[in-house]
Write a structure and sequence with these properties.
With 478 residues, the protein is an alpha/beta fold. 62% of the residues lie in helices and 11% in strands. It is built from 12 helices and 10 strands. The chain has a 7-stranded mixed sheet, sandwiched between helices. Helix 2 runs antiparallel to helix 3, helix 4 runs antiparallel to helix 7 and helix 8 crosses helix 9. The radius of gyration is 32 Å and the shape is elongated.
Amino acid sequence: MHAPASPGMGSLEAAYIPAGFVAVLAPDGRRRRGLHAALSGEVGVDGVLVASPRGPDSRLSRLPGGVADQLRTGRGLDDVSAILDAGTRGLAWVEGLDRIEAARRRLSQLREVSAAGPPPEALVRRLRELEGAPAALAVVDDDLRRAREDEVEVTGDLEQATMAWLRERQDAETRLQAYRDRARELKARLRQMEEGGATTPCPMCGRGLDDHFDTVLETLRDEWEGVVQDGSWWRRRREQLDLKPDSLQELETRAIQLHASVADLTQRAEAARLRVEELGETKARLAAHQAPASRDRAAAADQRAAMVDEALAEVGRDLAGEARDRLLDRTSAYLLRLTGGRILGVRWVSGRAVLVGPEVDLPAPADEDAAAAQIAARLACVELVWEAVGVGHPALVLGDPFDRLDEEVKVRAADLLSERVGKALVQVILVTRGEVVDLAPEAFDGVLELRSEGGGGVLRPVPAGTGVIRLSTVSTAS
């Protein structure tokens, strides 16, 4: 990831952000806000964010404008009501509300034409212009299918190549550090021997080296020189691996090109579908003009159209209500878990979300409870909407609400997010102060820390977690 003009921070670099549940640590609120904006894809006018290996799935374009990005990043969603409202809009849209709204728009256009439409000659001319729309849609759909297949294949190759490069670079770093540690150890031993002379104690038996001093000293010097030479080789090797291999850069370029191609073809396919829909509407309009109809019959038709429009609107409201109920159920389950049963769930009352306590509703919950509700709602909305779209596991970026939680709730939230990664999410990036890493290190798959380098910010991995635990069976003789 490279953001040349990250908001409020200058440039930002991150060679690799691992999948899974990842904590990104920053010391103050301004930098955390800048990090959250950069990791969410929001950059300043002078910069462009480039994230590899893949960008957003083009099928998310089915969602109404901005909803997918809002749910994934939390931008513009300041409270649980706004989150659930956006989630309801997105979930209902992919489950049929988009078709209902399209039908209502077409019905409105037909009613306008019935009242005062264009002359039949214009309709015939437009009909001829649109005759090739179905064939054009079939072609662009075929091109889009092939482009998506190529994108998936190249993305897989890119992920494998990236992991291989990162493993090789980490191996070089580990070996270089081992040689540096050994060189320091030998240097300290040599300094000790040079200062102590022949009376220097043997590291094995503790007795003075005496006559063996020169031999041991020469042996240590030879070993130290060999370690320095080998370390120099690994240092050069690590420097070489700091730059991505040409083959990997070519794959990244190819992946970006394919993603751009898929996005372009998706737009073209949508435009072709609109032309096909317009073709059907034009045929209907022409038929309406050609059919003899009196003013009374036209009025009756308009009345029937109004009834159909109201029926469609009612179906849309039902879809939205069902979507909201599903989101409330899952949000309530997550909130109950986060708060240890202190908050029982969320209800929708008079157009806003209300938290439910053990005995009464909480129209004005405490700040930490409101923050827990926001996290629960975002998690529920992202999971259900992405499941409905059918694009696989999404990634989630969390920021400020997490740091407002109590310590006990932070640990539960970390456990919940870690559990959901792999089951419903591919990645959760948590921008935080960092206390939770000390409270529940085992929950994280990676921890990165923002460090100031060269006038900008660099995300560097830091040790965290329990490491790899290997289990083996030990048998004993009877």
